Amino acid sequence: MNDMKEILGQDSVIIKKKEHILSVLMRFFKNIIIFLLLSIIISYILIAAFDSVIIVTCVNIIFIIWIVFYIKIFYDNTFLVVTDKKIIKSVRNWLFSSHIIELPLERIRQIRANNNGILAKIFWYWDLEIQGFEESSNMYFRSMKWNKQTMSEISKLLGDMSKN
User: Fold this and answer.
1) What is the pLDDT of residues 47-82, one digit of tens each?
2) Positive or negative: CA dihedral 2, 154, 93, 120
């Protein structure tokens, strides 16, 4: 979190939003299934070797704790921060890989919020797309609650900035 304080500097945070937990679960569904299959295979081997339910239960509990820990890391480290001068996107890709994108407000060209799909309608999450003047500065942030409100706040900041 010290890195985020360095990135923010003296900017005041207006909005900080996280990715919807359902989106995190869907994004890492494949990894969760792999962990569960690995747990089943190891449980089968331990049952054959030791014939002890306690050992198998302990192994399964360790795998479940690992899955929860894994999801929590990704949920906590994937967020969007809107300050009075810039927008910062932080995304955790893998356990040891993450990236941060920073876009100054004056470099924003267009903002869009989409609410597509059945799950998006049921759980009220939106996809937010922020386009900069350069192709490399585009930001796409999936599945946050109330991205329409975030879009309005960013538009208000851009309007206030253009008045000054």
Assistant:
1) 888 877 888 888 888 888 888 888 888 888 888 888
2) positive
Q: CA–CA separation, 162 vs 164, rounded Å?
A: 5
User: 61, 53 in Cβ contact below 8 A?
Assistant: no
- Output the six-digit token pair for 150: 């975030």
The whole-angstrom separation of Cα 32 and Cα 51 is 26
Question: Which two tokens mark 128?
Answer: 């937010």
Report the distance separating Cα 5 and Cα 11, nearest Å: 10
Task: Tell me which residue of 135, 153, 3 sits closest to 84, measured CA to CA.
Answer: 153
DSSP 22-80: HHHHHHTHHHHHHHHHHHHHHHHHHHHHH--HHHHHHHHHHHHHHHHHHHHHHHHT-EE
pTM above 0.85, yes or no: no
Residue 21 has which token pair? Answer: 């937990």
